[in-house]
Amino acid sequence: MSGLSKSPWIIHYDASSCNGCDIEVLACLTPVFDVERLGVVNTGNPKHADIFLVTGAVNEQSQHVIRNLYHQMPDPKVVVAVGICAATGGIFRDCYNISGGVDSVIPVDVYVPGCAARPEAIIDGVVQALGVLEQKRAAMAAPADTVCLGNSNRR
Ligand code: SF4
């Protein structure tokens, strides 16, 4: 994380959570875990956010909001799916209006396990997200011909 030049700003969206994971996200922000003391800022504006935290399974209505928020965030950006519902649809995955986890609509970089996801696991997921964010920043800053495309024949 040494290369980060500013505090990571987070936006949180509840895609259709039972509220369990959302309470744990709030626990991270409030005094017991208090991630703001580590420089993490919770914002309501996707244009200011680096990290997109999503809780709950994706349904017919929330998929449009997720796409909208995601596309408003500047690059580089990282998506964290918090809890098993956000990862796979969880216990709601067979419901008539659920399309699955967050990765059914946008790319997900980090999956935080749990039902509900524990605050320690969410903070760990955010730390992983910072590493991914730094890699994406470095890739964007590198000249195009030095970026590894994952295929040695394509250099
Ligand atoms: S993972 Fe569990 S606590 Fe979190 S939204 Fe789903 S059912 Fe609720």
Q: Give the proportion of residues in helices.
A: 25-40%
Number of DSSP-assigned strands: 7
- Tally of DSSP helical segments: 4
Mean pLDDT: 90
**Which molecules are bound in this entry?**
iron/sulfur cluster
Strand order of the largest sheet: 2-1-3-5-7
Report the sheet-strand fraction: 15-25%
| Elements, N to C (H/E) | EHEEEHEHEEH
Low-confidence spans: 150-155
Draw up the topology in text.
Elements: E1 9-14, H1 20-29, E2 41-42, E3 51-55, E4 58-59, H2 62-72, E5 78-82, H3 84-88, E6 98-100, E7 110-112, H4 119-141
Helix pairs in contact: 1-4
Bound molecules: iron/sulfur cluster (SF4).
Iron/sulfur cluster binds at residues 17-18, 20-21, 55-56, 83-85, 90-91, 115-116.
Notes on the protein architecture:
With about 160 residues, the chain is α/β, with parallel strands linked by helices. Helices cover about 30% and strands about 15% of the residues. It has a five-stranded parallel sheet with strand order 2-1-3-5-7, with helices on both faces. A two-stranded antiparallel ribbon has the order 4-6. The longest helix is centred in the C-terminal third of the chain and has 23 residues, at about 120-140. The two termini are about 30 Å apart. Iron/sulfur cluster (SF4) binds near residues 21, 84, 90 and 91.
